[in-house]
Amino acid sequence: MTATNTTSPWTFDEHSNGALSGIKVLDLSRVLAGPYCAQMMGDHGASIIKVESPMGDETRQWGTLSPDGSSSYYYGLNRNKQNIELDLTTGYGQDVLRKLLEQADVVVENFKIGTMARWGFDYDSVLASARPELVYCRISGFGADGVMGGMPGYDAVLQAYGGLMSINGYPDRGPLRVGVPIVDIVAANLAFSGILLALHDRHRTGLGQFVDISLLDSVSSLLIPHSGNWAMTGTDPARTGAAHPSVAPYQTFDTPSGEFFIGTGNDRQFRSLMTVLGRPEIADDTRFSSNPLRVANVAELSELIAGAVADRDLDELSRQLNSAGVPASPVKTIGEALTDEQTLHRNLFIDDGDYRGVGVPIKLSRSMSQKPVPPARKGAHTAQILSRLGLPSAADEDSYREHLHARPPVTAIEAPHRKPTNV
């Protein structure tokens, strides 16, 4: 059996007016940063095909498992995607990948450095010339070169290596990992931004390019204001717990009703804070009349504020302070935060009977985001995608051998017979 004429395996909602509608994304990534980046593109109308190995994305087994065996972790990173199961270590899997690469606008991958080149899909020597309009995003731990080039990296490893862990926690205790995979999340957002920059440039030039994102770059970008302070003074910062190293008060306070956060960024806010707390004279105290003085005397100030909030109703105090222009809030649990009235008003949590999870955080006035579709089971769209590519199933060995025999020999990807397309 020979290959038939192919049609695009990417499917689009014909009624979508998402900002990325019409963009075809090939998601070759796993775990967090890559899948989350691709999901964000899908949220805004791009069509995503996720390629998953027979072993599956390991996050399918991380955290609480659903009845179909997928985890809550995977569920939060892979909505709005078609899913094809491929063993890319085989000739058949690489043949299918070649066909997908011939049609994709964007590729997102986080394989070990050199893997794509070993399979014949190196960007610089193959894809850049065969698919000059392709936007190719690679996410790695440390980048491809340098003393750590090609080394593996997980979020917490980069929190430690990149200095972030050293500033998180209390001064009398050891360093703490940030409670969410913040480095991976920032890497996903940087990859999303880099891809959009490359697509914008492609609109102008007709050419794609390589988008190089590393977790090390991501964690380095997170060190503000500590990196600036170190650059100016050469002094490493101390851990300050819930308090801010440069602004006071800007911390949580323990109360019988729970923890309460107050942040004041200027003298006006501090005066308003003390007025609401019934201690307006504190704003004129020479120990606290400016932010540098408040930082220098933060221990005394914290004790005064803690006493003033101890017997207050925290929800009412939060309303009073916010009305006075002072940022403040009780410290909410995840459940409280996701069911909060304002969170629901902003459509930041969705429970529509089909999908239950966090909503789309980027809102545009004219281009609408996509209605979330739950993650597909592994290989859910394999047959459909292969059919659209004109390829037989790998299980049909006779047909596949016939297909390979009929296929013109190539060393890697076939250059399409068309001019680069703009977006």
Task: Kindly report how far apart the N and C termini lie.
Answer: 36 Å
Average pLDDT confidence is 90
Net shape: elongated
Strand order of the largest sheet: 3-2-1-4-5-6
- What structural category characterises the helix and strand content? alpha/beta
Largest sheet: 6 strands, parallel
Question: Tally of extended strands?
Answer: 11
- One letter per element, helices H and strands E, the order comes to EHEHEHEHHEHHEHHEEHHHHEHHEEHH
Q: What integer value in Å does the Rg equal?
A: 26 Å
Residues in β-strands, percent: 5-15%
Number of helices: 17
Low-confidence stretches: 1-5, 408-412, 415-423
Share in helix: 25-40%
Describe the structure.
This protein is α/β, with parallel strands linked by helices and 423 residues long. Helix content is 35%, strand content 12%. The protein has 17 helices and eleven strands. The protein has helices spanning 33-43, 72-75, 91-101, 115-118, 123-130, 155-161, 182-205, 215-221, 226-233, 267-276, 291-296, 298-309, 314-323, 334-338, 341-345, 382-389, 397-406; strands spanning 24-27, 47-52, 82-85, 106-109, 135-140, 210-214, 250-255, 258-263, 328-330, 349-351, 356-358. The strands form three sheets. It has a six-stranded parallel beta sheet. A hairpin with a 4-residue loop joins strand 10 (349-351) and strand 11. Helix 1 (33-43) packs across helix 7 (182-205) and helix 7 (182-205) packs across helix 8. The model is unreliable at 1-5, 408-412 and 415-423 (pLDDT under 50).
